Amino acid sequence: MAQNFIHLSDLHLTSLAGVQARELFSKRFLGYLSWRRRRRLEHRRERLDALVADFAGDGEPELVITGDLTHIGLEREFQAAAEWLAALAPPSRVALVPGNHDATVPASLDYQARYWGAYLAGDDGPGYPTLRVRGTLAFIGLNSAVATAPALATGRVDGAQLARLPALLAACRERGLFRVVYLHHCPLAGVDSRRKHLVNHAAVAGTLAAGGAELILHGHGHRDQRHELETIDGVAPVMAAPSASAAGRGDKPAATYHRFAVTRGKAGWELAITTRGFAAGAETVATLAEESRTLSRSR
């Protein structure tokens, strides 16, 4: 029987209406200006609500959210996002990592733990990489969200995470689990600009290639992105979902999510991918694409 899970990213579900000037120190001021100029028009809560309503009838799938629930990482935004998460599903069903907007300034890191701690934690509690095992699925979370200088949206997976990751990947392989690694920034070179990329992508991709994975999920680019990483165990798809609240202005796609169905096959794993969201100019959620992949594995 297939195990299903859903990937959402870059929700930007909060509003900055009514924010006081005293709250906009440092990098947050630039973020607020960006929200006033374009982000409040691009990110629409009703689009996100429509996606959630669309998969609400799928039973109780596991949910993977790869960050950017907020705009500038204010405490009020973390509170609002925590209320949304509580209405969405219990922490046991939601695997969350923060995005760069959730780490705008160092204070935002404290808010992550205070308001989202149960959603960020693994089965054994807090600390990255996290691990959640659900049936034959192993969800492995990496934190790439760090506070950066103004005008930068780069990320970094710190050395402590990379030091622990190989043993975790190996242990999950030995248990015969389908390893889903999820983080906000893309771990591959050349996908994002230097202003937005994962600064130690070579180390992250190298660790994943050496340790093996079945699927790598990320966000950040607000686009449906599909690449591959050759690992010791075979090819791992590297996929991103567009923003889950996007109106689809300009050349950016409208709100979309991915639904995955994983089945153990004779040659390894069967992975079915369904993309659901808003087509250009559409007002209702529909199936945008479907594909199936066989991930050959020797064990």
Automatic annotation (TrEMBL):
<keyword id="KW-0378">Hydrolase</keyword>
<protein>
    <submittedName>
        <fullName>Putative phosphohydrolase, Icc family</fullName>
    </submittedName>
</protein>
<dbReference type="InterPro" id="IPR004843">
    <property type="entry name" value="Calcineurin-like_PHP"/>
</dbReference>
<comment type="similarity">
    <text>Belongs to the cyclic nucleotide phosphodiesterase class-III family.</text>
</comment>
<keyword id="KW-0479">Metal-binding</keyword>
<dbReference type="Pfam" id="PF00149">
    <property type="entry name" value="Metallophos"/>
</dbReference>
<dbReference type="InterPro" id="IPR050884">
    <property type="entry name" value="CNP_phosphodiesterase-III"/>
</dbReference>
<feature type="domain" description="Calcineurin-like phosphoesterase">
    <location>
        <begin position="5"/>
        <end position="223"/>
    </location>
</feature>
<dbReference type="InterPro" id="IPR029052">
    <property type="entry name" value="Metallo-depent_PP-like"/>
</dbReference>
<dbReference type="GO" id="GO:0016787">
    <property type="term" value="F:hydrolase activity"/>
</dbReference>
<dbReference type="GO" id="GO:0046872">
    <property type="term" value="F:metal ion binding"/>
</dbReference>
<keyword id="KW-0408">Iron</keyword>
